[in-house]
Amino acid sequence: MKLPVIVKAPDLNIERAAHIAAAWSDAVLQDTESPFDHAPFSRWLHAYQQQREQLLAFGWQTFVPDSIRRGLTYIRLGSAARGEDLPHSDLDFAIVSDGTVSFAQAVDPLQQFVRTMTALGFQPCRGNVMGPNPRWFGTPADWYSRIEQYCAFPDWKSARYLFMAMDATPLSPCEPWQGIAVTVRSRLAASPFFLWQMAHLGIRRTVGLHPFGRVKWQAAAEGEFFDVKEQLLAPIVYAIRLLAIAGDVQAMATVARLEGLTQMKMLDPVFAAAVSDALWFGWRLRARLHAQAARSGTNAERMEKGRMPQAWRDCLQVHLRTAKRLEQLVCRRFRKPRGSR
To answer: What is the pLDDT of residue 340?
Structure first.
């Protein structure tokens, strides 16, 4: 697989940025290795994160007026924060305001930013986990108040918001966010109820595997399909994040968290290696879906059974069994606290 050259934000313009985004997407389709060999793809993914960050920085500097942008800090959320973005990944982000720019002043420019970034391969978040949503915008004081509100009413919705805020990295230095991140982590780690909710409401029964070990293909008018993100990747990423919180592993990337858990002997090294292989397989398969969608307009998340070679199906089944074992592990570890409803 030949990797495109990484182009820095100062050397980009809108037309070139769109072309570069497409070139990196197309490069994924050059990967013709076996489903067990993720080495070439891992080089692509690591390099792609650097290019993706430059495209994001370019868009933020170009599409948001200086008068607004100077008072705001862009906080990457989800896969972007973890360094796991793919060509069709959502534009999940939060905003920290220094108090000189209000939400009312920022919302229209931020909405325009979201619309414009689609040309560079950044899809609007379907769940609206973005700065134009007032829940994801605020001063440091707003953020601390929001955290306290979530902890005061610890339902599943509040838990989800706190876990989302766990995977967050500022696009530029932001000292206030460091304190916010520490608070989020400490409040989650101190709450057996929050941890139980993620294990049993967010992870349990999400792996796409039938009880007897067969792939759980979903039915659709155009044929059976498998959702790589929801049925394989998300359960693994969420489970590793949950264990990392419990074990005070400070890393952000999922593979780094996995390595930290192994070093702390919270996971068996052989099993951890199997989990890592499952992650790389899932990212690789999903990246190919994203690249094919960009080229031909196919669904970016659904792997159609009829288009999946048998060797890849067999490999998928192996990795799903690993994911299922991880799912069961976290459900056993994080029990519902006594006295909670």
So the answer is: 64
